[in-house]
Write a structure and sequence with these properties.
The structure is a homodimer. The first copy, chain A, is built from two helices and seven strands; from the N terminus they run αββαβββββ. Chain A is mainly β. In chain A, a hairpin with a 4-residue loop joins strand 3 and strand 4. The mean pLDDT of chain A is about 95. Strand 5 of chain A pairs antiparallel with strand 7 of chain B, so a sheet runs across the interface. Chains A, B: Its EC number is 3.5.4.19.
Chain lengths: ~120, ~120
């Protein structure tokens, strides 16, 4: 099985063949994390309803929650206007972040110096 | 002026020296777009309160809204747990997308085939 050629034809991949996926909690709107997909990861995500990424550090497909239990049930998938970013709206079970935080953006807030 | 070395030390950049920035409307939670920042763009964003990116297509800094009027007033900035993604919460004036859509993810929704 392969990604629908009509979708594959719209994707713009980086030199590693990957596209960033922004992952958002479908009801609260929290941005949970950013991960990376190749064509196969997007295909698996669309056909299984389970968020599936390419792990750049481990060099393998990664079904979110398979080891942690912190599954992402996919509710909505969209490409952006340039085909170079994916937005996933999911129902996140438990913590999205491997640190145990709900989102990967909870711990390191930067100060804005208003001029 | 340069980016605070304590922040620069936590950033993990891609081979082009860039980090993806997820841009979200601060009150509604809409994910508006994804853009790219280098250290200088992040520095300018934090010190001016105006979202500033590196345009990969034009090879120049890009203060969002300078030509379109569709300014992004920055309300919140955070790094993710790995330091390789930035989350910006902004107050977006008008359309975030160059197509005129409110967000860059409005036009190309993909079908999920629930198994």
């Amino acid at each position: 099985m392969n990604l629908d050629p009509k979708i594959a034809g719209r994707l713009k991949r980086n030199p590693e063949g990957l596209v960033p996926a922004v992952v958002q909690q479908h009801d609260t709107g929290e941005v949970l994390m950013l991960a990376w997909m190749d064509d196969e990861a997007l295909h698996r995500t669309l056909t299984t309803g389970r968020a599936t990424y390419w792990s750049r550090s481990r060099g393998e497909y990664w079904v979110k929650g398979d080891t942690s239990g912190h599954v992402q049930h996919v509710r909505h998938v969209a490409l952006d206007c340039d085909g170079d970013t994916i937005l996933l709206k999911v129902d996140q079970v438990g913590a999205a972040c491997h640190t145990g935080d709900r989102t990967c953006f909870d711990a390191d807030v930067l100060e804005i110096a208003h001029p």
